Amino acid sequence: MKTRKLLAILPVFLFLLTALFSFKKNTPTTAYKCLIQMKNYSGEGAYVVISLLNEKGAYEETLFVQGTDDEWYFDIREWWDFYGKKRSDIDAITGATISGGARAINSIAIPNDALNKGYKIRFETAVEDQTYYKDDVEFELTSENMSAKIEGKGFIRYIRMMPQ
Amino acid sequence: MTISIWRYSHLTLAISSALFITIAALTGIILAFEPISNKLKPYAPEALNTIYIAETIGVLQAKYKEIVTIEVDENEFVSASVITKKGESKTFYINPKTGENIGSTIEKLGVFKFATTLHRSLFLKSTGRIVIGFISFLLFLIASTGLLLIAKSQGGIRKIFSKIVKENFHQYYHIILGRLFLIPIVIITLTGVYLSFGKFLLPNENTNNIQELTHTKRANIANITDFEFFKTKKLKDIQKIEFPFSKDQEDYFFVKTIQNKYQIHQFNGQIVRQTKRGFAHLVAYYSLVLHTGKGAIVWAFALLMSCFALLYFIFSGFSMLLKRMKIKTKILNNTTKDEAEIIVLVGSETGSTFPFAQAFEKALSMANKKVFVATLNEYSTYEKAKNLVVFTATYGAGEAPSNASKFLKLLERIPQKNELKYTVVGFGSKKYPGFCTFAVLVHASLQIQQKYTPEMPLFKIDNQKINSFKNWVNEWSTLHDLNLKIDEKNVLEKNKEASFNVANRTKINIDSTFLISLKPDTKMQFTSGDLLAITPNGDNNSRLYSIAKIDNKILLSVKKHEFGGCSSYLNALRKNDCLPGRVQQNENFHFPKKVKDVLLIANGTGIAPFLGMIQENNAVNIHLFWGGRTIESFAIYREYIVAALKNKTLTSFHAAYSKDQKKYVQDLLEDQTALIVSTLKEEGVVLICGSLKMQFAAEKILHKIALKEVNINIEELKEKKQIRTDCY
């Protein structure tokens, strides 16, 4: 009899568990297309990390990582301080490094409630044997910026965002 | 020792870069497997020359929300980067006909990443790249000087591909492989240089090559799959298509082919701009493909083999160098050129003629003669000299060795006060067509000089044979009423004496013959048919024995002669006794390769080398003919022959006993005419070992049979090496 009861409770328990997780995941997000156009620099492909910063300027979430080889991640120093400790799963949001003169287009998901709240989007870049740019591109997460073209300071020529 | 400038450069360059080349070759071996393993992956299900771009775009559009790029790599694998209907960015290989995801893009394996970094920059980043690029250039120079050296020693650039004389194993294969891998190595080195330095030199794409094309400004919206460009270009011809970022009409399609870059209007499909990709880009592209072997298995395999060849070049090169360094070439004179009575001049490319000159000089000094030794290029005036002796080798097809290159000119220019008698000794190998040609030239040039008179005809020494050298020394000393003793050990420096242990021996039989088995104390290379030189204590003359190699031991068959110093010395040896000896290669009498039938003919102790050959045989039909005195003479060999017949390593055995049967080896041959005829017709080989008397008798029969049945004479057979002899 006892086991039976337990079995009856199990679905409820499972439901609660899923609900809990789905709730967390279900923060509504909007997908944006993001184009990164690199300058004509020479050398290896660049690692580019796109992150969401909160109103205090602290890392909130990793949005995309260009570069799959995690042994170089520590080169992207600021972000590494945030990411390196937790090592959250970013497999779904990684792509290849981008070579000089090339471009990359990705789809990134940005939480709706971060829009127009003083949050920022940061593009960090690093190239093997060369420099690291902590804020190659950095802009405020406003509705206006989300369909704009923004010039970069380092390896990035410009980035463009567009709601999907 | 002077060596030619090219050899010197070849060597210096090789020494200075050997370590790096070894690293590059080892990592190269690993890296060659990358293109091979990639190419073997199943990501090319369709032939790309049958598929138009529009077809692939069509199937992808139906499957995914948005296409970002389509790429075609060297393996003809098509990959697409898309945004899925769920809104995720994904990149994977596709089947270009169905748009299906057939696998995630190949990630470089850790071992390849490691090898790549080591190969191109030694983990030293930009500095390492420069070093490797420079080494690559040095390797190119090594290959070029190597080519010149082959050309020189073969006697001209056109003879590079003619047959190479095999004098020494490593040298032979160094040249053979050098010719074979010259082109791949030149390609590897030049592309390597470009890949290392190219990124520092590569100019940006030339703006002159941009062609703006007129197009209708008005957006005339057409379906992408209907674009003329996409409908007419095949997937095989492109490298990459980037799709427009937005619907903005300033956003274009970017298409890259190997030759061109195109911008295509996203609404009407017209080509807006066409950029010809510069020469530098093409060089960079082909350098990469050629250097890495991407996409081409056969070439990647050739690159792999080249890496192995490079390792062998380094190994064999250094082994040749060490061998040469062992030969002493330093000249120590105890008198000056103007004090000396006898002048010895040496011409040598490799330094191997010097030991002869030194041995001669030593012998003369012992006889209280004042001798001066110098190179031919140091030719000068000699105040008190009465005799001039020239020892010279020949380089290539008749050229002067490098330390004799100026001699003929000096001879014309420098007049001698006194009359001199001269002798020329030529050193070389009969295998070369230009055997002793330079020595002949020196002899002739001296002859036309008024102050010089020849005292002996030109004497040629083949293959540094010590005995012919001794013969010459004897002739020369008789002429001068001297008794010169040549110390062989000085001459045969490169073939040092080794020490052997008596592993076993038989009792002496009724023919005063016995078998003795010797185990070398150190590891050494020898083959049945080689010779063992044994010099009994207190004797200057060595005796040569033909050897059988059995279980890495040397087996000799020795007949004790009543007054034979050497055979008595050997006979006195007991098991575990120690003796010195020197193995001499005797390539002419090695067991032939790649033949089906071999006839072995021997009498008496001449059977020895054949015992070894038979024991090592695995696939050849061997017929052994042997002549002995009595049936009892055979006893000491019986166990070997019986075992060989049982193992089928010996096909047939024919014996004749001169005393018991009044029958000789040549009679056996006559009996087996059919076997001899078939062997000769099938390009089989006949080896003869034993007494000279037996050799003549056997050759007479063979000649008769060959002439009658195969229409070839014995001289031709010997020339073709179908008949080989080692008789005494």
From TrEMBL, chain A:
Protein name: Flagellin biosynthesis protein FlgD
Pfam families: DUF2271 (PF10029)
